[in-house]
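User: I want to check something. If I give you two sequences, will you return the structure for each one separately, not as a complex?

Assistant: Yes, each is folded on its own. Here is the first sequence with its structure:
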Amino acid sequence: MAIQKPIITPTFLYGPITSYKFEGDISKDKGKYRIRFTLFFKSGDSYSTQQSGYKTEIEARKAKEVLISQLVTNEYIPFHYTVKEVFDYWLYYYLIDEKKISYNTFTSYYNVLYKHVLPQIKEKTKLNQLEISNIIKIVKNIEYPSVQEQCVKILNQLFKFALAKHYIAFNPCIAATENLKKVLHSGSPKRMVIPYTTGEIKKLLYMCKVNFPDMYVPLLISLVAGTRISETIGIMYSDIDFTFGTIYVGRQLGKDMDIDTSENVLSQKIRPKTHNALRGIPVPQWVLDELLVKKAWYERQKQLVPDFTDLGYICCHCDGKPFHRKSFHDDFHTLTAMCGLPKVRWHDLRHMYATVLKNNAVNMKAVSEFLGHASPDFTEDVYVYQKETVHDCSILTEVWENIRPEAAEAKNEVLTIPFSRNEYI
């Protein structure tokens, strides 16, 4: 079912202050002095308010001068929201509606903010009441280091947003982050993925083909095309150009937050992560041959399996229904352990792909385009492991040829995807 958004106060939608008007001069109110004024917002809405409680007229006039200065310099804070109110608006309205975050990003942010941060804050606490010490305490009280790091990153984004929107006048997260570097891993060097060698990749593919046939083609595509797991499981046979040896990426499978349905909630078609994610990726002929074998298997399943779901996905269950991004999580870690390889995430295959291309003289602009990145600099900085050359070949096609999964005693065997009759009976 679709995500249910909490009701927010309408003032979040007013936008910035466009003008203001003072209502008369300084006036008395219950023995003290006050300043009355009306604010006008970009949305067309207006809001009348006052500042009161000044003991003398001189004090009130000085306050009015400060107020005018804040209004002119766009530093005035018209509304003071609670922490939860800001969380609700930022996550459910700004990030979902404007930034178009994915369902997985949403759940990740939700868990940090609503399960780790909010329980440590009193219900009516205003966001501008949180101080540096409060943020440090909140983060340190989180049990898991990885969640601590994630919390700091999310809170930095949120407070930066709140400052830009004039919900707060000061961002305490900046100083808190500096203080927390002593207890977090975020101050350490970036996580580097050391690529598997040619022999290790070949072994990985062969062991997968024999022991986890359903995972073989997804693994193969992710390795030789550098696709995200959500992209890999979304590739259809119609996306393959067998003549020019190209895989076209045009969709992901995941949870579409705009669709209200309880069926296949993790395998819905969703838009690519960015415009750059729409791309064509060259692959070698032997990989295309494997996809043709898989296509033959697919056609056979259509004939043998009752109620086969013919959606055209290359990576699918025996009944044609698509996988989701967590389908191979456990089997993948079991496979790497069986091969005696260092434990990595499926996403790390993208890092390996980028490193292989970089180490074989493929320019970074091409690597960046194949990965669906906007910037070659980002690709090289984040995705490429440059401390050692893993492959001894210099031509890209030779790299992929060298990882062809074959048994030592069956060098001339026809590459097929093993399956048994039990899988479709």
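And separately, the second sequence with its own structure:
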Amino acid sequence: AAEVLKENLEKLVLKFTLKQGDKGRVFGSISTKQISDELKKTHGYDVDKRKMHGEAIVSIGFSKIQVELYKGVLATLTIEVKPE
């Protein structure tokens, strides 16, 4: 089941927006809690934020974050952040 979930998660691209200032500087960040909430709300996957490895996302563009679904089963989520 974890392998199937991994395949499904790796096909997704989660989209977020952040406010951006004059010189390309962003205000705020995307936390693992926001990623977990978005996965549940838009795709129905209940993934614990504590299983996500990585820092809060603070830049515009694409980022990757690792999620431990089961012992030895890591999925890579793709996060896209656009300016607001």
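Because they were folded independently, the notes below concern the second chain alone. The CA atoms of residues 17 and 82 lie 5 Å apart. The helical segments are 2-11, 32-43.
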